[in-house]
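User: Last request for today: this protein with iron/sulfur cluster, please.
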Amino acid sequence: MNTDGKGPDRGGSTRYLARVTPEFEQGPIRPPSEAQSLLVRVVRNCPWNKCAFCPVYKRRKPSSRPTEDVLADIDGMAAAADEIRRSAGGVGRGDDALAGFRRARRDGAVPGEAAQVALFRAAGGRSAFLQDADPCAVPAAKLAEIVRRVRERFPGLERVTTYARASTLAKRSAEDLRMVAEAGLSRVHVGLETGSDEVLARVKKGTTAAQQIDAGRKALGAGFELCFYVMPGLGGRDGSGEHVRGTAEVIRAVAGAAPAERPLVVRLRTTAVAPGVPLWEEHEAGRFELPDDVETAREIRALLEAVRDSRLLLVSDHSLNLLPELEGELPGDAERLVGVVDEFLALPEDERAAFALGRRIGAYWTLADRGDPGRRAVVERAAESLGARTTQEILAAAAELRSRYV
Ligand code: SF4
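Assistant: Here's the final one, the structure of the complex with iron/sulfur cluster:
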């Protein structure tokens, strides 16, 4: 129902009536696994904002949002979800949710950002994600109140998750973290990137390996599921070995502290360097050389070997990754996972380069896709249109495309 009581204008005009449900804020990013989550913006932007590889919040000021604004947003999302369900004839799940949103939007009944609420409902309404970069930096009582409100308004949620900086978690008391976990925050996504102090300093991550280990153990001890994002390639060509050594050390130290029912999750997010970020300037000045896809695959293999005895889940769900097949459980799947990398590395040079390009243009997903003549033709045409003829030129074209995914 519209607030002016006139009902929607269905005469083909684009003149919309007053909205029924309120607007709410959403931040720019979430992890790939949270693409269909309800997005709740607790803080704006990133309070650190200095990581040399990160383009997301540069030149944007960080701020903490008043609790009442965040709670009002959650209420607004719940109202939008009701409106979407009503517009979908009372169902509001699966494709019906998307159709319900389109109808409600056309009638001026929900704001544009309710599209995410529709995606969330379409996927079954199971997860919520707290934004932006570091919601755990706000007082624990405030965060707990926000989490409780999300759980109250959306009782079907199976998980509530957030990004958290390792340095922030390390500073939090065990009691504070437990309070937030008991309120219903179930998972923290931590941008580990690397466990090497040398590489951490080089990319200005603002944390140390010791803090990462402390943060990881504390998060697990509080009862959270813990995801570490690791960035293959971040050490550059010269620092690859050190990157692997330090990262494996942190992973082993934290994985060993995880309870059986909540193993550490390691998610790969291959390094790409976007124009404009500080690491790009280093790259342009020749002080940082980004490993190509073949070198990155070798690095991942070395990391796998270094952590193969740890108990963890490996996930490769980022579009920047060359090998999405690198998913499994260590130590049981170690042989198979190393085998996936070896299968790629054993390809003739020109085939490896073509696969890298095929991944970047979306023609290939798995290594087996190379056997599809239609997909191969798409890759060949792409190489031609990019003017890439030699193996090195094709690999370079794939690397160039990688930087555009950031
Ligand atoms: S802490 Fe995260 S969001 Fe902030 S600059 Fe670093 S990578 Fe970007």
